[in-house]
Amino acid sequence: MSYQCSFNDLLYPQVDRTPGIARYRIVSFDDGFAMRAVVHIVRFVDTVPAAPAIDVAIDAALNKIIDAHFLGIRIDRVHLVVESSDGVFEYPIEFDATEFYKRGNSSALQGSGKSQAVSIDSKDVVGGSVSFFALSAKRHAMSAVVENALR
C-alpha cells in the first residue's frame, strides 16, 4: 500500500531569520518489511539558497515538517528527498545523541569524562524527541524503492 499527499507550502526561517517558502509532500509506502515515509521537498519558492545556506534551509524545513506530521513516528522509517537546481538527492537524517539524552529520552549513558557514550535504541528516536538535521555531505542518489514510491 502506498499513499501520496498533495504538495503543500511551508514557511520556514532562513539563515537571516527572514521567511522562506518551500513546497513539500509526504509519501508513504510499504517496502516489504515495514511502512516507510518520504518527505519530498520539491523546491524552495524563493531563490534557492546557496551553500551552506541550503543546508540550514533544509534542516529548518525538515524540522518543521517533522513537528507538524511525524510526532511519535520512528525517524529510521523516514526518508528525505530534496529536489533543487543541482538535482534530486536523498539525504540521511541524523540527530545529536547528547541532545537526545539531555532531553530525558530513553537512553543510557556509559563511561565517564571525555569517554562517555550514549546508547540509544533506534526505535526510540521519534519525531518530537530531538531536533534533526540532514547530512548534505552524505547525500546520494535515491534508492530504487524510494524513487518508485515518488512516482
Written account of the structure:
The protein is built from three helices and ten strands, in the order ββββαβββαβββα. It is an alpha+beta fold and 151 residues long. The strands form three sheets. Strands 1, 2, 3, 4, 5 and 6 form a six-stranded mixed beta sheet that branches. A two-stranded antiparallel ribbon has the order 7-10. A hairpin with a 5-residue loop joins strand 2 (8-13) and strand 3 (19-30). The chain is globular. The relative contact order is 0.18. The mean pLDDT is 83.
Question: Descriptors for this entry?
Answer:
single chain; 151 residues; six-stranded mixed beta sheet
Major sheet: size, sense and barrel closure? 6 strands, mixed
- The total tally of domains equals 1
- Quaternary state reads single chain
Mean pLDDT: 83
**Estimated structural class:** alpha+beta
Give Rg in angstroms. 16 Å
String of helices and strands: EEEEHEEEHEEEH
Provide the low-confidence segments as ranges.
none
Give the beta-strand count. Answer: 10
Shape assignment: globular
- Report helical residue fraction: 10-25%
Strand content: 35-45%
Total helical elements: 3
* Separation of the first and last Cα atoms: 14 Å
Report a brief summary of the structure.
The protein is 20% helix and 36% strand.
Secondary-structure topology with pairs:
Elements: E1 2-4, E2 8-13, E3 19-30, E4 35-44, H1 53-69, E5 78-84, E6 87-91, E7 93-95, H2 97-102, E8 108-110, E9 117-119, E10 132-134, H3 144-150
Parallel strand pairs: 4-5
Antiparallel strand pairs: 1-3, 2-3, 3-4, 5-6, 7-10, 8-9
